[in-house]
Amino acid sequence: MTAPRDFFELPADLPIPGDDGACDHLPGMRLPALPLPATDGSVVDLAALRGRSVVYVYPRTGHPDRPLPTGWNAIPGARGCTPQSCAYRDLAAEFTALGARVFGLSAQDTAYQREAVQRLHLPFPLLSDERLELATALTLPAFAVDGMTLIRRLTLVIKDGVIETVFYPVFPPDADAGNVVEWLHERQD
Q1: Residue 162: which domain range?
Q2: Engineered SS bond to 102: which of 77, 80, 85, 124, CB 3.0-4.6 Å?
């Protein structure tokens, strides 16, 4: 079964998230040693990775057979996880050429994320922060909807376990991957 067309397209009237300063503390921060389960069956500790990694953090991917959370389109920055993931998929070779590995990360469990990896044909793993351990350790911005605590959309560029820069707020979500590629091109070693 394929996802409904509207999962791939962003409504024109989405509210634009503002920069509330919730990520200002992150650049220069060393990541905590924290193993996260990945959809490829591995466990990834972002603090232990050498080189450059890009971690796009998204609230949650939708599922073709389930409704979106209550008021999803009205929450600034909530809508757009599928277009964002697809943009990273489409630029995966460019990230590799720039020497950066890519991960997606959400508070969804690994089994749920595996469905998205398969359906969207993602060539990189998604990481699960289901218990919000990384989000809590880094004091990442979050919001609540339908009894779920979800991490706000942001992108971390990490080098040798230290956050180099943060893209926040991310809008529109489908432009994020291209913006990060441009940033990486400007900083080629």
Answers
A1: 28-186
A2: 124
| CATH number of the domain enclosing 130 | 3.40.30.10
pTM above 0.85, yes or no: yes
**8 located within any domain:** no
* H-helix segments, the chain: 5-8, 81-90, 92-97, 110-120, 133-138, 176-186
The sheet that has 52-57: what strands, in order across it?
A: 126-128, 100-106, 52-57, 154-159, 162-167
C-beta pairs of 7-13 under 8 Å, 24+ apart in sequence: 7/62, 7/64, 7/82, 8/82, 8/83, 8/86, 9/83, 10/79, 10/80, 10/83, 10/172, 10/173, 10/174, 11/73, 11/79, 13/73
Strands 126-128 and 100-106: parallel
Residue 165's SS3 state is strand
To the nearest 10 degrees (0 to 180), the angle between helices 176-186 and 81-90 is 40
Q: For residue 127, give both structure tokens.
A: 């990481």
What Rg value do the Cα atoms of the chain yield, rounded?
15
Percent share of the chain, pLDDT over 90? 84
